[in-house]
Amino acid sequence: MLCGLAYWWERQLPGRLDAAIRAGDTAACLHYSKQLAALRWLGQRAPTEQALCRRRAAEQAWDEGRTIDALLLQEQLVNSKVGDISQQRQDQARLKAWRDQLRNEALNAFRDGDLSGALTLLKPLERNIKAAGSRLSTSLQETWSRNKLDYERLEAMVTSKRWWEALAVLNRLDHPWWQRKAKPFRQTIERAIEALKDLDEHHNHGDLPKHSVPSAELDSAVQKRLAEGMDPWKAFVTGCRDLGGRVFEEGPESLCRRH
After folding, report:
1. Which of 86, 23, 80 is nearest to 54 (CA)?
2. Are 110 and 140 in contact (CB under 8 A)?
3. Pick from 215, 221, 216: which is nearest to 236 by CA?
4. pTM above 0.70, yes or no
5. Are 137 and 229 in contact (CB under 8 A)?
6. Are 179 and 173 in contact (CB under 8 A)?
7. CA proximity to 169, closest of 194, 135, 146
8. Where are the extended beta strands (E) located within 116-220?
9. DSSP state letters, 154-169
10. For the chain, how far is it from start to end, CA to CA, in angstroms?
11. How many other C-beta atoms can be found within 10 angstroms of the C-beta atom of residue 48?
């Protein structure tokens, strides 16, 4: 009796599957094609129809923004290798195009400062990647955290008027959003460093602490080290040492004085 019932249902499935395909009912199409593929009593028609259902369901899911469902169905379609070589290549190309689109949208969101949005877009691409070090999302999070920490350090150094150190931290920022956020600091820092070149003019008035190394010589030595690729703070310390001096902290200022 059970065998008879199964045989009867199996004979009903092709008609129900065809009706679902004609009606564009992707959910029913997938449901009936899976049942027909499991029974396999009608030869090879089931895998072909199942591939058609998956293709249509994947496209519908993608159009509706259900990216996880779309990628899963398209991956199943590609892995099934149903259809001729031309159709398989088309299916593979669509899967690659969808993955590339999600990755590019995630990177654009990240560059615009939307870390959360970027991670959401990457989630469907990384659901099967177990090693955290292999995930693009991990790299984005690390870059964001590093820039955020450097920005906080930058704020502290500007507040304490440690200009050369602030410039070094500012130049380490490598994320467009954090670079834009720090742009006002750059103007402040560059004006402050430029003002250091004029310290000698104010020494007679006693309104600023003295470098015992002439400012013009110090600036030349620092610029030379910057040209060699040193970061600004190291260039300041090394340039001071080149002139026989040593860096001292006096109040908020970092000063170069000879021994």
Report:
1. 80
2. yes
3. 221
4. no
5. no
6. yes
7. 146
8. none
9. HHHHHHTT-HHHHHHH
10. 104
11. 15
- 224 token code pair: 């030379």
pLDDT of 214 above 70:
yes
Name the DSSP letter for residue 254: E
Determine the Cα–Cα distance for residues 73 and 89; give it in Å rounded to an integer.
16
Write the pLDDT tens digit of every residue in 130-184.
Answer: 766 678 999 999 999 999 999 999 999 999 888 888 888 999 999 999 999 999 9
CB 137 within 8 A of CB 145: no
Residue 208 tokens, joined = 């600023």
Tell me if 213 sits within 8 A of 256, measured CB to CB: yes
| Calpha distance 115→139 (Å, rounded) | 11
| Tokens at 99, concatenated | 């993955």
Q: How many CA atoms lie within 13 A of 3 on its CB side?
A: 1
Q: Degrees (nearest 5) of the Cα angle 239, 240, 243?
A: 90
Q: What is the pLDDT of residues 75-91, one digit of tens each?
A: 988 988 877 898 889 99
Residue found by looking up tokens 């620092």 in the block? 222
Whether the Cβ atoms of residue 47 and residue 87 lie closer than 8 Å to each other: no
